[in-house]
């Protein structure tokens, strides 16, 4: 044997004995990782070691006597409850994929005096999603977690706690026994068979999807995915009492802070009303939504619902027929807390032949937190079909209240544009025209956009003498159409239109700048529907 090889062997033997002597002579380390106790000696009936058929991490802590406690959970039922709870409660899937979780025990799983089971874990959850035949990584979270498991007749109640963002150190020490602190500070990050958390999650994802995780050379990718779906869990996880990474969620006062309405397609497809909840007062850690897992979002939105009504001029809906949407869902976008979904068919069944709707966002105690208007344009013809000479002169597009009616285009007839009311009335009108042609200006698109900031659009009852007073006017809104061209749209809203169209009335429209220079004048004649 060469002198070089002998010297290497002596070096590693010496290093081994040095490591053993350091560990055995370290009283601080020995005292820091003794058998776990709770804040009360009566809290633990008897330390009971459970564990898992799933890949779990090898803990670095030791029990009394220096023996390492088991790195896995022996009871498969407890293991399944923990694994299911981590995927459902901790995993995040902002890209529409599936989360997969790995963990290591920080302390032995034990039963407390009240019969609940306590587990302290270091967890890594990672989302994976399919795109173009490969698996991509999505959202991930690495965090210590305290689980409290309670088996009940109807299923398992699982509560979880995590350190609070912005108060991590103090909240971590409140949640976890001191014996777990050194391991939280320096977790092994490996499964009992030596795999890293990351590799373990990758293998779970590849087995589930039947695809390889990117980056992988395309010539090594399988031509046909062979997915292995997750087996149906034998345990049922109940909705828990909230113990999240924030102040207790049930103590927060919430209100809707943002609401949007969207539709899959204006031809057909469902609608979504997406709601963002915020605490009152706001938390110092930033927007509430940014601190929530998908499960916590579902917990917060439980009990919230959305009411749909036919819109009324008097804005009184307390005793009106409503379509109640209480099946809250995971939001389509991360900035919202929950979605509700509905279709035009559901509105027709509950509210009848109506496009003009009002929605109310109502909390768990019946308080209206938000109200907004919504117009169902499903199936309507797009008018004007093209922007030709007639459109440049100015046209009116009428949007009906009834689903059974379609949009209508009204053109000039002499000085006035006659607007004939349909059977169910109008929800709103658009007056569209070529601003350059109607005003005779030669300004550029950029100058026109600057002018928009100071334009005043007012509609008044028509007078033959032309003597108009500002106090008789109603202010309207307008904007240039998409593309930055010269076409301009004025919006006649529901509240004004409902009154103005009750009788055959003529109106005068004026668009002027801040100095009173008039750019556009137009005339309309409303003709009420006659049964």
- Order of neighbouring strands in the sheet with most strands: 17-16-19-22-21-20-23-24-18
N-to-C span: 111 Å
Largest sheet: 9 strands, mixed
Structural class by secondary-structure content: alpha+beta
- What is the alpha-carbon Rg in Å? 33 Å
Q: Mean of the pLDDT scores?
A: 77
Please indicate the percent range of residues in DSSP E strands (runs of 2 or more).
25-35%
Helix content: 10-25%
- Low-confidence spans: 1-68, 216-223, 239-247
Number of strand segments: 24
The geometry reads as elongated
Individual helix count: 12
Describe this structure in words.
By secondary structure, the protein is an alpha+beta fold. It is 21% helix and 31% strand. It is built from 12 helices and 24 strands. The strands form 4 sheets. It has a 9-stranded mixed sheet with strand order 17-16-19-22-21-20-23-24-18. Strands 1, 2, 3, 4, 5, 6, 7 and 8 form an 8-stranded mixed sheet that branches. It has a 4-stranded antiparallel sheet with strand order 12-11-14-15. The N and C termini lie far apart (111 Å).
Descriptive key words:
24 strands, disordered N terminus, single chain, 8-stranded mixed β-sheet, 531 residues, 9-stranded mixed β-sheet
